[in-house]
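User: I'll paste a sequence; please echo it back and then give the predicted structure.

Assistant: Echoing your sequence first, then the prediction.
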Amino acid sequence: MAEDYRNELIITKRIFNEFEKNDIKYANFKSNQHLAESFMGVSDYDVLVEQEKKSVVDNILIRFGCKKFEPIHIGQYPGVENWLAYDCKTGVIHHLHLHYQIATGKPQVKDYILPWKDVILNTAIKDEKHDILITDPNVEIILLIARIVLKSKALDYLKACLGKFMISEELEIEYKFLKEKIDIKKLFEFSNTMFSTRNAKHIVELLIEHNKVDNQMFRKMAPMIRRELRLYRRMYSLQANYKSLYYRFVLKIRRLKKQRMRGFDITKKIGSTGGKIIAFIGVDGSGKSTCK
């Protein structure tokens, strides 16, 4: 039976408190500049959790009335689960991405499983404002750069050589947010843990020198990071490129079918733990948002 939610703490804060009571290692491990939005239900949580406590985590989420949802056909990644938590007091639905390993890489494919799970979980710090565990910013900025590199295509490296490479505005904001929080001594320590000594030094120097991920920084970082993480691919580069291209094509066809041909195709996540979804439909101003 679901817990009684009628107290001052929102449901996700209660869930994280329960993780800590059960000695479950966890951390909101990326995009922590959006943590306030996550607690408002505007943005998702990305929570890394220790694999050994998965059954305990599942029991906690079910006890709090959470529902597990999974993508249809495209968007299923190894070791990643999607849970929705409904807060009865606020009426907000919170989306929890639970990661039991760190999958990243090409869009729709995630062809790398990064080996830094223990580093992140064992060095997590408490966010002072929201009182939950998050990734140390000195680790998170390294993770961010690795994600940018591993998501990139060969064309991006060519653009960097021609001085035309750019990352998204959101990633640029995230980089600047983390850059302001780094401690150089800690950055060197973590980098030496996550990379070989030689490359760790170069990576830290580039992070200190550059206030944005520009062409020069990307051009120097990309070969080092790809070499360091080549053993952590879960598929060959050619296969990953083919799958990413194919999935993006399929998604475009689905959108075209839906928009132009009035077709119906489920492209979002569906419930895997039972229950029903109820939608309130009506014209603007009819009171949909006030239905509870």
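The chain has eleven helices and ten strands. The first helix runs from residue 11 to 21.
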